[in-house]
Design brief:
Layout (H helix, E strand, L loop, with lengths): L10 H4 L7 E2 L9 E2 L4 E2 L9 H4 L1 E2 L4 E2 L9 E2 L4 E2 L9 H4 L1 E2 L4 E2 L9 E2 L4 E2 L9 E2 L4 E2 L10 E2 L4 E2 L9 E2 L10
């Protein structure tokens, strides 16, 4: 675009390149155009149409501001797959539901808590280990751990099954 330098200057002095986050597909302009929210421009040619000059935010990321040079990752415990990338994180990114988690940012889905672990909160980046005396047998949407039945026990956290009381001993606890 044409800046405030004298029009008699050479192009390199009189015309300014569009900064990252902006583009200008037309000649003889006095300013650049912002890439729209949900898009960014870091190094693509600024002389193309927005569809070529500005890149859309990928899944797991969003950008709610125009004229940006990158997109922002959805936080750990959240994901974005098909929601609009133009909204703020609270709208663009979905919290992992109870029984699911994800430990890293920029994800497109959440993981199910593994056997021996559970999660009761949303937007979690980890699952908690089942307490002593409790277990969860499989990889499922685990929001709680089961108590060991009478005659069985658990003496460690994060277990997938309970142990049988040995001969000559018993447990009647629930």
């Amino acid at each position: 675009y044409r800046n405030s330098a004298a029009a008699t200057s050479v192009e390199a002095v009189a015309c300014t390149a569009c900064e990252t986050g902006k583009y200008q597909p037309n000649a003889a302009q006095t300013s650049c155009i912002d890439c729209a929210a949900g898009k960014y421009r870091d190094s693509d040619p600024a002389s193309s149409a927005e569809s070529d000059a500005c890149s859309a935010c990928g899944t797991g990321t969003f950008q709610d501001q125009p004229a940006q040079t990158s997109c922002t990752d959805c936080a750990a415990g959240k994901y974005r797959n098909s929601a609009a990338a133009t909204a703020a994180e609270a709208v663009a990114c979905t919290a992992c539901e109870t029984g699911k988690y994800h430990p890293t940012a920029a994800q497109t889905s959440c993981k199910v808590c593994p056997a021996g672990r559970f999660e009761q909160s949303t937007a979690s980046d980890l699952c908690k280990a089942c307490a002593v005396g409790r277990f969860h047998p499989d990889d499922a949407v685990n929001i709680f751990c089961h108590l060991c039945a009478p005659g069985l026990y658990n003496d460690d956290v994060g277990q997938t099954a309970c142990k049988k009381c040995p001969v000559g001993k018993f447990s009647d606890a629930h």
